[in-house]
Amino acid sequence: MTDGVTIGQAAAFAGVTVKAIRHYHQHRLIDEPRRDSSGYRRYGSADLLRLVQIRTLAGAGVPLAEIEAILDADPDRFAAALVDAERRLTDRIDDLIARRETLRRLAIGDRALLPDRALALLDRAADLGLTPADVTMAREGMVLIKALVPEGFDDYLSRIERALDDPRYMSLIKRMWCAAEWEPDDPRIDELATAIADHFLAHPALLPIPAGLQDRTDSAIRYSLLTHHGHEQKPGWTRLTALIEARLRSAGIDIADQTPLHEL
Q1: Spatial distance between the Cα atoms of 51 and 29, rounded to a whole number of angstroms
Q2: What values do phi and psi take at 178, rounded to 5?
Q3: Which residues, other chains included, contact 30 with Cβ-Cβ below 8 Å and sequence gap of 6+?
Q4: Tens-place pLDDT, residues 9-36
Q5: Could you tell me if 193 and 247 are in contact, meaning their C-beta atoms sit under 8 angstroms apart?
Q6: Among 172, 166, 181, CA closest to 133
Q7: CA separation (Å) from 116 to 41, 112, 113, 119, 134?
Q8: Nearest to 29 by CA among 8, 14, 9, 40
Q9: In angstroms, what CA-CA distances link 133 with 122, 147, 176, 218?
Q10: What is the pLDDT of residues 191-201, one digit of tens each?
Q11: What are the φ and ψ backbone dihedral angles of 228, each rounded to 5 degrees?
Q12: Could you give phi then psi for residue 251, rounded to 5 degrees?
């Protein structure tokens, strides 16, 4: 009787594929057995045991590059290696759970792109009377600010929290959102620009300026990306923003390096 089994039989017995066994050989996880007189490699019981061990560790998430050292280690090192592999596997599981949660949140929109603190502010804005379209635009603005000025995002949220507690400011903001539908030459735009600029000058802490934007060498580019968001089909907004910036600049505030005023 010929000793051992063929590679196909070994694969079936060990619960792997022939391709996997050859892959294990390439990674030197298991020695290639000698060929019999017919030219077939024959796998013995020790080989089958090794294949099962490799399959089990690989299935548990242990990288192939680490399996040889684990299998060839003494009992203490073997146990320590398994503990480390378990820790890394747990980290991967936590990461996958977080990704799954992100996908679930994305199913209801881009709210997954913002932290809970920002979402709470958007909910407050909706409760204060901003329309769903206004809140959507504000949310998109927050996403952009978080991406372009991440180091100043928490400071920006703090400013928005103070702003939402200012009834006069919220009244102006609601009118600002309405101005998106006004014609650029509407006289109400000049009046509103003056009122908003005066309020910012009287309450500079309300200026939505995230910390760190002015320190960036490409702050002008980032500012341009932020300030033009949503303006494509809203020429009234474009003029209103320009007038507010001009009034603030004449008062000594260089708004060109700061955050767009319509992002809530």
Answers
A1: 9
A2: -65, -35
A3: 21, 24, 47, 50, 51, 54
A4: 999 999 999 999 999 999 999 999 988 8
A5: yes
A6: 181
A7: 60, 9, 10, 5, 19
A8: 14
A9: 12, 21, 13, 30
A10: 999 999 999 89
A11: -95, 0
A12: -95, 5
- Average pLDDT value for the chain: 83
**Residues 140 and 110 sit within 8 Å (Cβ to Cβ):** yes
218: Cβ contacts below 8 Å, ≥ 6 apart: none
Alpha carbon separation from 57 to 13, 86, 92, 121, 163 (Å, rounded): 17, 11, 15, 47, 56
What amino acid is encoded at 20 in this protein?
A
How far apart, in whole angstroms, are the C-alpha atoms of residue 189 and residue 118? Answer: 29
* pLDDT tens digits, one per residue of 160-202: 888 888 899 889 988 988 888 899 899 999 999 999 999 989 9
Cβ contact 214:152 at 8 Å = no
How many degrees, rounded to 5, is the angle at CA 224 between CA 219 and CA 226? 95
What is the rounded distance in angstroms from the CA atom of residue 226 to the CA atom of residue 141? 7
In terms of DSSP H, where are the helices of the chain? 7-14, 18-26, 45-59, 64-71, 75-106, 116-127, 132-148, 153-164, 167-178, 187-202, 219-227, 235-250
- 41 phi and psi, to 5 degrees? -80, 140
Phi-psi region of 254 (alpha: psi -120 to 50; beta: other; left: phi over 0): beta
Q: How many Cβ atoms are within 10 Å of 84's Cβ, its own excluded? A: 13
Nearest C-alpha neighbor of 48 from the set 15, 20, 82: 15
